[in-house]
């Protein structure tokens, strides 16, 4: 299908192929966190909270690594899906998907900061999915950066940081190919039907932090990859602007 035709293609919820679902940030949702936001992304809801510890992991001390650290945890609450999802604590271990996503969140947040400017402290990012309708990891990353910005603004206001350690902004979005058409920001039904599913994590300067792309019982061509990357960049630019508006200059 020609690019112009794919752009005008209307999805089941009325969106164009290149259109994000509505995204909204409700900040300070967790009063005891240093920074927090509830990101509402279509029907997906994720609470992102940041807490700060005035110490670093033992391995940093033992290896003489200077600066600070950022770690993340991700979980889906039992009632976030149509059928109850048991808590990891009831199974005695964190499932592989959660481990993968929380590591991705941590990498994304670390890429945004100058860890030397952070000083000898650890930032903990917790992302809890209240409702899942596709794109929970991209919502978690995008919301986590807003919560991180809010927490760092608080540290600066309290005089605990001499300089803003933010080196770049970070956002994430999903793209995919459904019925042969490249689409931006897949909801659950689209994700389930996708021939190709990809997540993009990018900086505000247009560089990639991570690409996770998979052909679901299918393959994809160079042209299809280029079309998905083009859609992804469009979505990232919109998300960065929404983040900036949420945090305030």
Helices and strands, with pairings:
Blueprint: H1 3-8, E1 23-27, E2 35-41, E3 44-53, H2 58-63, E4 69-76, H3 88-91, H4 96-112, H5 115-118, E5 122-131, H6 136-157, E6 170-178, E7 181-184, H7 188-193, E8 196-203, E9 208-215, H8 222-247
Parallel strand pairs: 4-5
Antiparallel strand pairs: 1-2, 2-3, 3-5, 6-7, 6-8, 8-9
Helix pairs in contact: 4-6, 6-8
Structural key phrases:
alpha+beta; Ribosomal Protein S5, domain 2; four-stranded antiparallel sheet; 8 helices; 9 strands; 28% strand; disordered N terminus
Describe this structure in words.
With 249 residues, the chain is α+β, with helices and mostly antiparallel strands. It has one domain (3-247): 2-Layer Sandwich (Ribosomal Protein S5, domain 2). The protein has 8 helices and 9 strands. The strands form 2 sheets. The chain has a 5-stranded mixed sheet with strand order 1-2-3-5-4. Helix 4 packs across helix 6 (136-157) and helix 6 (136-157) runs parallel beside helix 8 (222-247). The radius of gyration is 18 Å and the shape is globular. The chain starts with a helix and ends with a helix.
Short overview:
This protein has 249 residues and is an alpha+beta fold. 37% of the residues lie in helices and 28% in strands.
Mean pLDDT rating: 92
> Can you say what the CATH homologous superfamily is?
GHMP Kinase, N-terminal domain
How many helical stretches? 8
CATH architecture: 2-Layer Sandwich
Helix share, percent: 25-40%
Supply the CATH class. Alpha Beta
- Percent of residues in β-strands: 25-35%
Task: Give the CA-CA distance, first to last residue.
Answer: 41 Å
Give the helix/strand class. alpha+beta
CATH topology: Ribosomal Protein S5, domain 2
Instruction: Outline the low-pLDDT stretches.
Output: 1-5
- Based on Cα principal axes, name the global outline: globular
Largest sheet: 5 strands, mixed
Q: Give the topology string: H per helix, E per strand.
A: HEEEHEHHHEHEEHEEH
**Strands of the largest sheet, in order across it?**
1-2-3-5-4
**Strand segment tally:** 9
The number of distinct structural domains comes to 1
- Gyration radius (Cα, Å) is 18 Å
């Amino acid at each position: 299908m020609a690019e112009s035709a794919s752009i005008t293609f209307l999805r089941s919820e009325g969106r164009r192929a290149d259109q994000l679902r509505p995204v909204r940030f409700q900040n300070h949702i967790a009063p005891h966190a240093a920074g927090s936001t509830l990101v509402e992304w279509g029907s997906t809801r994720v609470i992102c909270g940041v807490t700060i510890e005035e110490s670093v992991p033992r391995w940093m001390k033992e290896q003489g690594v200077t600066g600070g650290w950022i770690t993340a945890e991700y979980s889906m609450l039992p009632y976030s899906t149509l059928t109850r999802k048991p808590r990891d604590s009831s199974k005695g271990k964190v499932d592989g998907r959660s481990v993968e996503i929380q590591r991705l969140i941590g990498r994304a947040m670390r890429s945004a900061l100058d860890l030397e400017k952070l000083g000898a402290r650890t930032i903990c990012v917790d992302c809890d999915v209240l409702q899942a309708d596709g794109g929970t990891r991209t919502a978690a990353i995008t919301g986590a950066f807003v919560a991180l910005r809010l927490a760092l603004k608080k540290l600066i206001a309290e005089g605990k940081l001499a300089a803003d350690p933010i080196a770049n902004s970070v956002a994430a979005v999903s793209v995919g190919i459904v019925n042969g058409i490249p689409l931006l920001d897949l909801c659950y039904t689209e994700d389930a039907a996708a021939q190709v599913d990809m997540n993009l994590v990018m900086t505000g300067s247009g560089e990639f932090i991570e690409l996770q792309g998979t052909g679901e019982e299918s393959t994809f061509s160079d042209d299809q990859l280029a079309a998905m990357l083009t859609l992804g960049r469009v979505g990232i630019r919109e998300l960065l602007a929404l983040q900036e508006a949420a945090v305030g200059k």
